[in-house]
């Protein structure tokens, strides 16, 4: 019998703490597949900060460092500068990356640090109770915006890829999604390209991944994925903006 699919070697065979249907597990697998395909497992170092992603080291069989909230780009910068031969990436959520860590990501990108950033955008604070995030879309209900986010009161959502595209230094910027199989395949291509940029010695790369949060959205997984397509894409268009 021919094997058509198998677990990546860089993905540990364990049960995760993520909620059923959560997109983090999908993205973990994509990252693991890319690491295996490039044969860089022994030279890759991940950095995971506070948030749902903080236990990523339990699922990816590579070296990992934890960072305090929002500071993953700074930790990754230090590691990459001390070990330029290593492949260094951060794995961050929206509350971490563009809220408390907004200054960190902005300046790491502006310096053109030779790191790769995997940015999970689920438009809400997933770990701490479903509060409004910088990426919460207008009208979206959260525990801190029970009537829906108001642009007049809380401002519009921040588009990270477009924001970083105003800088000169980044080498690769893309936004992808995990809401269906076709887009998951596109997401893998973007993640692969981001790692390839670093392998080739080029500068800062970031892939923003639209993902669901079934628990805090209070939706079943299939419905949550449809919600991405029907609501998030209007505010976060998919595609590569810098290559």
Main attributes?
alpha/beta; seven-stranded mixed sheet; 243 residues; Rossmann fold
Task: Provide a descriptive summary of the structure in words.
The chain has 243 residues and is an alpha/beta fold. The chain has one domain (24-242): Rossmann fold. It has nine helices and seven strands. The protein has helices at 24-38, 72-82, 94-100, 102-111, 151-154, 160-164, 181-199, 214-217, 221-235, and strands at 44-48, 63-66, 87-93, 116-121, 172-177, 205-210, 239-242. A seven-stranded mixed sheet has the order 2-1-3-4-6-5-7, sandwiched between helices. The longest helix is centred in the C-terminal third of the chain and has 19 residues, at 181-199. The chain is globular, with a radius of gyration of 17 Å. The protein starts with 23 loop residues before the first helix and ends with a strand. 46% of the residues are buried. The model has no long low-confidence stretch (mean pLDDT 96).
Shape: globular
Residue share in helix: 25-40%
Mean pLDDT, as a whole number?
Answer: 96
CATH level 1 class label? Alpha Beta
Can you summarize this structure?
The chain has 243 residues and is of the alpha/beta class.
List the helices and strands and how they pair.
Layout: H1 24-38, E1 44-48, E2 63-66, H2 72-82, E3 87-93, H3 94-100, H4 102-111, E4 116-121, H5 151-154, H6 160-164, E5 172-177, H7 181-199, E6 205-210, H8 214-217, H9 221-235, E7 239-242
Parallel strand pairs: 1-2, 1-3, 3-4, 4-6, 5-6
Antiparallel strand pairs: 5-7
Helix pairs in contact: 1-7, 3-4
């Amino acid at each position: 019998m021919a094997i058509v699919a198998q677990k990546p070697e860089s993905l540990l065979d364990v049960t995760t703490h993520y909620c059923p249907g959560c997109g983090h597990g999908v993205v973990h697998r994509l990252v693991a597949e890319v690491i295996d395909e490039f044969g860089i497992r022994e030279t890759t170092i991940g950095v995971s900060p506070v948030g749902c992603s903080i236990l990523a080291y339990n699922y990816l069989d590579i070296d990992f460092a934890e960072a305090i909230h929002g500071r993953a780009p700074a930790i990754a910068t230090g590691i990459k500068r001390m070990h330029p031969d290593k492949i260094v990436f951060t794995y961050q959520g929206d509350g971490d990356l563009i809220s408390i860590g907004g200054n960190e990501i902005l300046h790491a990108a502006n310096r053109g640090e030779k790191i790769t950033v995997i940015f999970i955008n689920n438009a809400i604070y997933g770990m701490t109770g479903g509060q409004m995030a910088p990426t919460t879309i207008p009208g979206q209900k959260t525990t801190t915006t029970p009537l829906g986010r108001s642009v007049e009161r809380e401002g519009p959502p921040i588009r990270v890829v477009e924001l970083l595209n105003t800088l000169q230094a980044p080498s690769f910027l893309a936004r992808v999604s995990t809401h269906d199989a076709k887009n998951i395949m596109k997401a893998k291509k973007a993640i692969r390209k981001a790692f390839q940029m670093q392998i080739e010695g080029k500068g800062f790369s970031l892939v923003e991944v639209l993902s669901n949060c079934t628990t805090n959205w209070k939706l079943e997984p299939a419905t949550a994925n449809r919600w991405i397509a029907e609501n998030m894409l209007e505010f976060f268009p998919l595609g590569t903006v810098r290559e």
